[in-house]
Structure formats: C-alpha cells, structure tokens
C-alpha cells in the first residue's frame, strides 16, 4: 500500500472506498438471503418496530410521551432501536431496511479505527486496520445480523478514539480543544452505554488508567476535563437508566448466570473460563490475518520502537476488556466484538512491519486471500478446496437462497380468519428458524396485529395456557431448545377436542408446521347491517344457577359502531335483585381490548362482538336472584351512559351443579391476585409468578390499562373499597407509573391503616423513585405496627442509605440479617 503519511485527503478517499466495498458486499448478501431472524435478532427487530411506532406520534414537549418512550424497552437501551426506527421510517419496514443502520455504524467504525491509527501510528496503519475490520469474520458476520454488538463496536471505538485524542492533546492542542475532545468523549461514552451496558467492560480500564495517571501528575485542569466528560456522559444516559434501573438490575441474573448455566459456559473457577476468548480469537480474525502480522512483528520487532507507547495504550484497552469480559460468566463470541478493532490495529501494525521487496506482496496477497475467504464464508459458491477454507474456520455465514419459510403466511392466515382482532399466537417449538420471537416480528410487520409468545413452559401452567389462547403453532421433528413441559403442552393441543388443525406447511427439514385454532374462539367480531349510535347488549347467555366462588361461563353479545366499541369499556355489575350491596363486577374492554385497526376510518358501519368468558361470583355471596347492569365508559373522554340490555337473571345456589367455564378474563385474575397483597411477602411470589403468566396472553398489557380506567371510575363512587384500591395500586406499579402508583398506595394506607405491608409497598415505590425521605417516613409507620418483618428492616436500610445515614443503614441491615 502506498504510504500516505502526508496525504490525509487521499487517505480519507481510500477509507471511503473500503467502506463502499463492504457496503456493496453486505447489500448483495441481503438481496439474495431468504432466511428468517433467529431469537435475539428477531427480538431486536421487533424492538425497532416498537420505537418506529412510537415515533409516529412524537410529542417533544410532553413529559408523558417521554416517560412512555423511555419505558418502551425496559431491558435494552434505546440507541440502536431508535436509529433503526428512523431508518425504517425513511426506507420502509423490514429486515433489509433495519440493517441499513449498519452502513452508518460501519462508517463510524472505520473512521474511528482509521483515526486511532493516525493518532497512534500512521495513515498507512490506519487504512490497513480499517481494511482488516471489513475482513474479520467476527465483524462481517455480525454486520449481517441485527444485533446490538456491531453498533456497540462502532460507538465504543469512537469513544476510545475521543479518549485517545484527549489523552494525547495535552501538548498538541489548545485548552479549548482539549475541552472539546473531553466533551466528545463524554457524549460518545454516554451513547455507548445507551447502546449496550457492556460498553463499560471495554472503556472502564482505559478511563481508570487515564484518571490515575492524571492524578499522579497533578494535572488538575486535565482531571477537571475528564470529570466533566464523565458528567456529560451521565447526562446522556441518565434518563433511560433512571426510568429502568430496577429492570436492568433484576434482568441481569437471567441474562448472565441463568443463560450461562443453560448454555453450559465454563464456571469462573476453571481455566477454560479465562482462555475462552483467547481460543476463539483465530476464528474471529482468521488464521491468515492473525499469523501473517504476528510473524511480521517477530521478524521486524526492533524496527519500530517509537510505537511502543502506542502499543502499550492499545494493550491497556485490550487486556482490560479481555479480563472484564472473561469475568462475565456468560460467554459468547459476539460479546467481545468491541475489542476486535483494537486487535485490527495491532495486526495492521504487524502487516506494515514486513519490509523488503516481499513486504507489499505479503500484505496485498494476505488481503486478497482474506477477501476470497470472506466471499467463500458468506456466499454458497461451492467447489472450494477445504485447504483454503481452513485459513478461516468456523466462519461460514451463508446467505440462504432456498424458498422463504412460511412465517408471513402463518401471520396472514391468522389475520384473514380474525381480521378485526389482535391475536396472540402460542409458539411451542423454539428453533433458530421457528420460534416465538420471529413470529412475533412478522406479526409486528403486519401493524402489530399478531403477537408470538412461548407458552407451555411450566407443567403446572399447561392447562391454563391451553385455555387462554385461540391460536397455537406446533412442529414435527426437532423442537429446539424447549423446557420439559413443552412436550406435555404439545400433546394437550394436539389431543384436545377444543382445537383443530387450521393449516399446515411443509418445512425444508421435512418436518411440518401446524397451525391450530380453537373451535370456539373467545371473541368473534362480525360486521352487521344494523344502525347503532350507542353500544347495546343484545344477548347474555348464562346458566340458570351457579355456585359462588366457582368460575361460571357467560357469553355477551354487543352491537355498536367501531369507534364506540374500540374506545369503550363496559362496567358490569351483577347484583342481587333485592339488595344491591351483594354483587360482583365483570369490567372489561369490548373484545377484551383486542379490537384492531390501524386506522378507524377503514372500519365503517356496525359490528357485533361476541365474548365467551367466565366470571367469578365471590365465595361468600348469599343465595338469591341476581341481575345485570351495564354501563359504557369511553376510554378517551371518560363519557358514560347506561347500556340497553335484555332482562337477564341467574340464581346463586350453593348446591348448584358447576358448569364448564373457560379461563377467567385477565382483569378478574388481576383482582384475585391483588386481594392477596395485604398478606405481604408470602403472597408476592405467587402474585408475580401469575402476572408473568398472564402477561403472555396480553402482550400489550392492555388489561392493566383497562383495570386502571375501570377502577379509577369506580373508586370515585366507592372511595372506601379496599379491594379495588389494592388492585388499582398493583396495576399502577406493574405499568411503572411511579407518581400514580404513589397516589394509589397512599389511598391504600388510608383504608388499611394497620397493615405494615401497605406502608412497605409505598416505601418501595418511593425507593424505586430514589426518594429516601418519604420512604423512611412510610417505613417508620410500618415498624410502629410490626418491627419484626425482615423485609421492612431491609427497606429501612436502603432508605437510610439513600439519605446518607450510614450508621442507621448499617443498624437496619444487621437487624435484617439477624431476623
């Protein structure tokens, strides 16, 4: 390669050419690839569509909009999603469109690597390093998959470049420019943390090293610049982490320890845990691009002593990143992608170490062969000698050129059968090609009308799962990574008289994909020819007699305009004819909130909604005759009106024969769970276990919003109803609506004044919101009622710690440990 030490413009032109060649190769691969995204890739693609949907109605000055925006993804930071959402807003939705963001991140990565090469070595080494980044199997593979690690690699490298320039700017640059580079580092570091939390693994050691060196040299202004940059990074990433810190912490165990155990990763007390990434390095960079530069360094190691300081700086980054990534018990090759650009700089230095007449030939020969290896690893060209492929082992990532799998067809079939409804599909197999995440993604592409969820994962929940969904997908042959209960779930669906095979598809592995549908769906919607301004209840079907405390079947048939039905809740009171204080409620949105339309203008006329449900009269309800009152509540305006209903009665009879009933609706299940909250920690485990289950049935968690709207209205008329107050508080907490949850729990403690757990719940929400003093006040009341509850002592310790009372925090901590 021609030396370009004094020709920065020409260097940038060559850099642009390197980017362009990689971009063309990538887009050709996407053009011929017919594969479907696997688990993580599909999940991330769906996340980008969630952000795309949110960006359709941007409200820059609305705090509520920003709060909902930060909560769109409570575990995965939002930068990659947001950039992909913008790309899909411009170019349309789909895999090819979403992955266009990698062209941007490739440009950032190559420019940053080139900049590091220029700063630490020369233009020549910078260009070679950029070329190697295009040719490393570990990097070009993940340019072709929608995962967070390639964007993370780009932004981490950019941040490291800014830190490097700032570190070397003490002599070269003015004070003003030093501050600018410190600010650039802070912003890029904040953005890296907003791409993925593991950015800290790669930048922590260099930041610590620079900070200690600055302190040692007593460069106080430089230290102030570094601290200012770090503060600026906090400003960048603070809003999202402030909203989701608890979820990030609690999901960490599942993402690391649980995943490591499930995947069989080596434990930290074994040598394999610390050599894992060293052993896979040849696969990530290829033997060719690893050995040729290393040989060059060995043969010509004495010729470039002036670069030892630069090499040491790169070694600090790489060794620190290697140690911290190895310390993470969950291992995967893509988790260390951000240190590969630094490896590229090392190897580019090695390539340029070759001298003499063979130097250029070795460099260009290695690059040419590396390009050939990349093509052979990405495109199924065939007829290639294995001896050549051995130079880049375990790097195949062929474009799939066979027929497309039937994911889109499955989604389309469900929509055709239930065109007015949002449906949830229970996906029972879990292979890279057939899993809940990629069906969920293809459903999201169809305006989020179908959601895919994995159910049947626990034996004790199989029966409830089977009774809660109308659609299931099974597969013959290999089932993939599924729990033991999955076989029981498959048998339940296949043998149940309630389900039938709706349609089947043949798969390339000679297995069959079977779509099952409930013979009697929970909700059916049809268009009818009948004028209707207000919603009416045309028919109610119930048994003549039912037992209290046992679910009873009920069928409601509603008629109304699309606008009224979609925007409405129905408040149902089944009350004793002679004494209305004896009653139960059955509030819900029409069609359980599953009426779906992208644009309400597309659905004109009148519709009939048939709901086949179950209700639960309280166990202590006295015998007698009960009747129904229905009230319409508009979810948008709060408007109410009585719903015209047929005369209907039923008898509560303790000795009545139980009738077969479907699963209880989600709002009723939530009220049952909330009723156990006064029991404290003994009830919480079951509550959240059940919440996790029913959340699968309603992927949008609209049942929580329905609960809030219905109970807020009821509590205006029944302010002393403790059961409703607890249910409203639980729904607020589950929706992470902090201020509203605090208000709801303050109502609870006014009604349940002698329950220490009510105060503890309020304190917990205050602590979640980093409000130590209000939490401590609530906990004082809790300890006054019962000071022996361990959880209250633990919360008291945290509240004291947030207020800086270390002695008090230690006191409560020891009480908790000794309880």
From TrEMBL:
Molecular function per GO: pentosyltransferase activity
Cross-referenced Pfam families: PMT_2 (PF13231)
Span of domain Glycosyltransferase RgtA/B/C/D-like: 77-240
Subcellular location, record wording: Cell membrane
Swiss-Prot/TrEMBL GO biological process terms: lipopolysaccharide biosynthetic process
Coiled-coil stretches noted in the UniProt entry, renumbered to this chain: none
Top-level taxon: Bacteria
Entry GO terms, CC: plasma membrane
Membrane topology (UniProt): Multi-pass membrane protein
Bilayer-spanning residue ranges: 12-32, 100-118, 148-166, 178-194, 200-216, 223-241, 280-300, 307-329, 335-352, 364-385
Protein name in UniProt: Phospholipid carrier-dependent glycosyltransferase
Organism: Gloeocapsopsis dulcis AAB1 = 1H9
């Amino acid at each position: 390669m021609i030396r370009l030490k004094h020709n920065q413009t020409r260097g940038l032109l060559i850099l642009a050419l390197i980017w362009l060649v990689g971009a063309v190769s990538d887009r050709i691969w996407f053009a011929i690839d017919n594969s479907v995204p696997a688990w993580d890739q599909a999940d991330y693609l769906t996340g980008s569509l969630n952000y795309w949907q949110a960006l359709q109605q941007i409200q820059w000055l609305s705090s509520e909009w920003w709060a909902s925006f930060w909560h769109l993804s409570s575990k995965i930071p939002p930068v990659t999603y947001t950039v992909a959402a913008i790309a899909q807003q411009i170019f349309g939705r789909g895999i090819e469109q979403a992955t266009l963001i990698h062209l941007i991140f490739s440009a950032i990565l190559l420019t940053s690597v080139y900049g590091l090469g220029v700063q630490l070595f020369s233009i020549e080494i910078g260009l070679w390093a950029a070329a190697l980044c295009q040719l490393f199997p570990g990097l070009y593979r993940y340019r072709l998959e929608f995962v967070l690690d390639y964007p993370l690699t780009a932004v981490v490298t950019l941040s490291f470049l800014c830190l490097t320039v700032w570190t070397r700017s003490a002599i070269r640059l003015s004070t003003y420019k030093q501050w600018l580079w410190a600010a650039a580092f802070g912003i890029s570091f904040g953005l890296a943390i907003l791409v993925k939390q593991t950015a800290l693994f790669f930048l922590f050691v260099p930041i610590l090293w620079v900070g200690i060196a600055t302190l040692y040299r007593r460069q106080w202004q430089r230290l102030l610049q570094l601290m200012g940059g770090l503060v600026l990074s906090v400003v960048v990433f603070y809003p999202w982490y402030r909203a989701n810190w608890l979820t990030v912490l609690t999901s960490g165990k599942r993402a690391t320890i649980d995943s490591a155990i499930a995947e069989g990763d080596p434990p930290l007390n074994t040598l394999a845990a610390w050599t894992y990434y060293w052993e896979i390095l040849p696969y990530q960079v290829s033997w060719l691009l690893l050995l040729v530069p290393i040989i060059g360094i060995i043969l010509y190691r004495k010729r470039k002593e002036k670069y030892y300081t630069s090499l040491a700086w790169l070694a600090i980054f790489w060794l620190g990143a290697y140690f911290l990534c190895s310390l993470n018990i969950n291992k995967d090759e893509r988790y260390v992608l951000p240190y590969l650009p630094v490896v590229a700089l090392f190897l580019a230095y090695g390539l340029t170490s070759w001298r003499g007449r063979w130097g250029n030939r070795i460099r260009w020969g290695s690059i040419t062969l590396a390009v050939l290896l990349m093509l052979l690893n990405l495109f199924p060209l065939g007829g290639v000698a294995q001896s050549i492929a051995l130079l880049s082992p375990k790097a195949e990532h062929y474009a799939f050129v066979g027929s497309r799998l039937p994911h889109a067809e499955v989604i389309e079939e469900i929509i055709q059968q239930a065109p007015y409804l949002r449906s949830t599909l229970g996906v029972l197999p879990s292979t890279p090609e057939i899993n809940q995440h990629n069906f969920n993604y293809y459903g999201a592409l169809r305006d989020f009308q179908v959601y895919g969820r994995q159910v049947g994962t626990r034996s004790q929940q199989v029966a409830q799962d089977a009774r809660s969904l109308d659609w299931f997908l099974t597969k013959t042959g290999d089932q993939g990574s599924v729990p033991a209960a999955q076989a029981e779930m498959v048998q339940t669906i296949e043998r149940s008289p309630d389900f039938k095979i709706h349609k089947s598809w043949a798969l390339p592995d000679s297995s069959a994909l079977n779509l099952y549908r409930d013979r009697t769906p929970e909700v059916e919607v049809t268009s009818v020819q009948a004028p209707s301004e207000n919603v009416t209840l045309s028919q109610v079907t119930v048994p003549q007699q039912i037992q209290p405390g046992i679910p009873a079947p009920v069928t409601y048939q509603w008629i109304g305009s699309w606008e009224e039905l979609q925007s409405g809740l129905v408040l149902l009171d089944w009350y004793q004819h002679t004494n209305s204080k004896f009653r139960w409620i059955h509030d819900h949105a029409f069609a359980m909130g599953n009426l779906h339309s992208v644009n309400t203008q597309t659905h004109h006329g009148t519709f009939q909604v048939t709901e086949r449900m179950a209700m639960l009269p309280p166990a202590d309800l006295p015998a007698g005759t009960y009747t129904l009152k229905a009230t319409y509540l508009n979810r948008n305006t709060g408007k109410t009106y009585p719903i015209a209903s047929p005369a209907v009665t039923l008898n509560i009879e303790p000795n009545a024969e139980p009738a077969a009933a479907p699963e209880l609706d989600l709002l009723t299940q939530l009220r049952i769970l909330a009723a156990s909250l006064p029991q404290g920690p003994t009830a919480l485990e079951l509550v959240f276990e059940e919440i996790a289950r029913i959340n699968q049935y309603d992927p949008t968690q609209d049942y929580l919003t329905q609960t809030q709207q219905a109970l807020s209205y009821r509590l205006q008329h029944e302010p002393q109803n403790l059961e409703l107050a607890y249910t409203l508080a639980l729904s607020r907490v589950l929706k992470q609506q902090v201020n509203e949850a605090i208000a709801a729990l303050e109502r609870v403690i006014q009604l349940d004044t002698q329950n220490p757990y009510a105060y503890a719940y309020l304190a917990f929400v205050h602590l979640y919101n980093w409000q130590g003093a209000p939490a401590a006040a609530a906990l004082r009341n809790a300890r006054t009622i019962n000071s022996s509850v361990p959880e209250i002592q633990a919360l008291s310790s945290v509240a004291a710690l947030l207020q800086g009372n270390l002695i008090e925090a230690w006191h409560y901590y020891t009480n908790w440990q000794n309880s």
